[in-house]
Amino acid sequence: MALVVASEAHDVELPVEISQPVEISQPIIPPRRDEELSLLQNQKQQQQQQQQRGSRRPRKKSSERNKRHGARNQHRHKFFIKWLLKTFNIKEDQSSSQEQQQQHILDVAGGRGEVSARLTMCHRQQVIMVDPRPADIVDCYERIVLPRIPNKWQARLEEKRSINPDFIKDTIKSRFQQLVTTFDEYKFNNNVKLRNAIEDSSLIIGLHADGATEAIVDAALKYNKPFVVVPCCVFPSFFPSRTILVESKTVPVRTHEQFCLFLLRKDPRFVMEELPFDGRNIAIWWDGK
């Protein structure tokens, strides 16, 4: 599997300078079937070795494990966005034209909204988030994102807020909206607002989008849209019809590795790539070409 680590990109608060266009990295050729099988076998062996090592060691307290896990993953959204900006050559939006404002990134299953908050405030992107639970993006930005940006950008933001106390709220309102709904084939076939959001998008993203992950891929193919998904949970009981060919045998998709290969094989143009953060970090993406 190819490992592509994105170079450092801007992750700062408004105002920011216009970033120079970033060249798109060379596409990664999806692995052949024999390489895919080798990948599955190697990952299975690694899991077995980890389980054997773990059985010989005293178990850590759950609080210690959670603390370590949180430390490794607290910057996941930042690293994901840096990779996103470079891979899809996304420029910070300085234009107020109606045509460019209609182009937006579609953030599916965005949860509490950290990806959307960073894209709108730190990188000046128009974003529509789709999630069945209403999200408070202003609160997410102020509590989670703002404390982690460089001090100089925090100071500049405070200058803005001294003039307009609602600066963050007003900025997010001008760039962000949420569709409170699920994302599946039935919805984007029958929900006009959701279908329009897909058709007018420049990119569809799903970072750990859970049950919506495959629907993102299918929508991107149907509407010919660039996309990236980073699969997390598989939910085999909810999707029993998913199958994959392993060693000439058709088996149900049950593991994370099988799910990634299942999505990758939907189209030969798709790319599988490991992203520069810990945890579930395998991306399946397509530039729409």
The structure class reads alpha/beta
Low-confidence stretches: 1-32, 55-71
In total, the number of domains comes to: 1
How far is the first residue's CA from the last residue's CA? 22 Å
What would the average pLDDT be, to the nearest integer?
Answer: 81
Shape: globular
Spatial sequence of strands, sheet with the most strands = 3-2-1-4-5-9-8
Helix share, percent: 40-55%
Predict the CATH topology: Rossmann fold
Write a structural description.
This is Methyltransferase domain-containing protein. It comes from Fragilariopsis cylindrus CCMP1102. The strands form two sheets. The protein has a seven-stranded mixed beta sheet, sandwiched between helices. A two-stranded antiparallel ribbon has the order 6-7. It is globular, with a radius of gyration of 20 Å. Helix 5 crosses helix 6. It has twelve helices and nine strands. The two termini are 22 Å apart. 44% of the residues lie in helices and 14% in strands. It has 289 residues and is α/β, with parallel strands linked by helices. The protein has one domain: Rossmann fold (3-Layer(aba) Sandwich), CATH 3.40.50. The N terminus is likely disordered.
Question: How would you concisely characterize the structure shown here?
Answer:
With 289 residues, this protein is α/β, with parallel strands linked by helices.
Features:
alpha/beta; 12 helices; 289 residues; 14% strand; disordered N terminus; globular; single chain; Rossmann fold
